[in-house]
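Fold sample X.
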Amino acid sequence: MTLHPKRRYCFIQRALARAESTCTGTPGHPAQHWRASRQCHPSWTIARIGLGVFAEAIGTYMATVLSGLAIHAFIVLGLTCLIFARANPLKYMHQMRQALMTAMGTDSSSATLPVTIECATEQGGVSKKAAGFVLPLGATINMDGTALYEAVAVVFLAQAYGINLDLGTLILVAITATFAAIGAAGIPSAGLVTMVIVVETVNGTLAATPGSPSIPIAAIGLIVGVDRILDMCRTTVNVWGDAVGAKLIDRLERRPQT
């Protein structure tokens, strides 16, 4: 007999719930370890909340990350370029368009570096001295888009597992994500690797409260499927931040000494 997909799903859910209630398991019993590993696995989270609800949550997560990156790129970095570097951010972004498109295509700040230097010096009017110092340094440690992404991702994973983070923990997430992003390599999906540091830091804070749940490292697998799209956008923001920094340093160099 063939079951309808919805009935099959309900049947599996009831079977798992029955196994949960009957297999109490004693310390060291295989059933106990089976339940623990099952609940920590990303597929169990998807099965528990439903595929439709999970897809909606992933969509909200992606929209949050993309909105944050857009605000940072156009408002924060744009105003920095306008006020401090005294340059038109839209015009400068147009001059850096080849580097930004290369960053989106390669997902790597390091691979984009030669194009970034060329665009900044030949089209953006940045001196070779400022570009040669700021841009290689920025491609290594200036990962502002990655820091924003990691902070949002960890909060999303905590919510997916029903963990509420207080204000102090959220501030800790922001600080840890900033330092973790500095240590991220300029290669595709490097943020997924350094995100482990942020997750472990949050778990250390949660462990201070007896009985508080933690975020499994395997939970990162929930967002791997959409990471490529977000990686393209955050790498573009990283390169744009490097370019704005080079423009700012170039203006400070050219400013008359008083």
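Fold sample Y, listed below.
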Amino acid sequence: MRTSRASLGSAGGRAANNRRRPMTPRRHVSATTTRRIAIIGAGPVGLEAALAAAERGLDFTVYEAAPAPGGYVRRWGHVRAFTPWDMNVSARARAALGEGAPAGQQLPTGDELAEGLIEPLVESPA
């Protein structure tokens, strides 16, 4: 998965729970403005965000606190998911992995999700 350098900074808006002052409205960013995206977490959702950013040609970096991608998923590696592969693998992930994408009605464990989806996505050139 393609990444670029990025740094984390402040959000720049007012706190959402401040009822006296509204949050600062976001200004329009033109298509020619270069922005870098920080994606927090290299689990299924973070990698989906990375695929979406790559699809749009945006520069991004994926940050993962664990020693390997999908660290939180691996914490519950022995537990079986309640949704089958067909519901756990997005259209973007299927496109990135091609015929190697997991499919079917089997309920994967967290370890199977990490080994069958997360690791292949990280290794993919998408």
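Sample Y note: Residues 110-123 form the longest helix (14 residues).
Also: Residues 2-18 have pLDDT under 50 and may be disordered.
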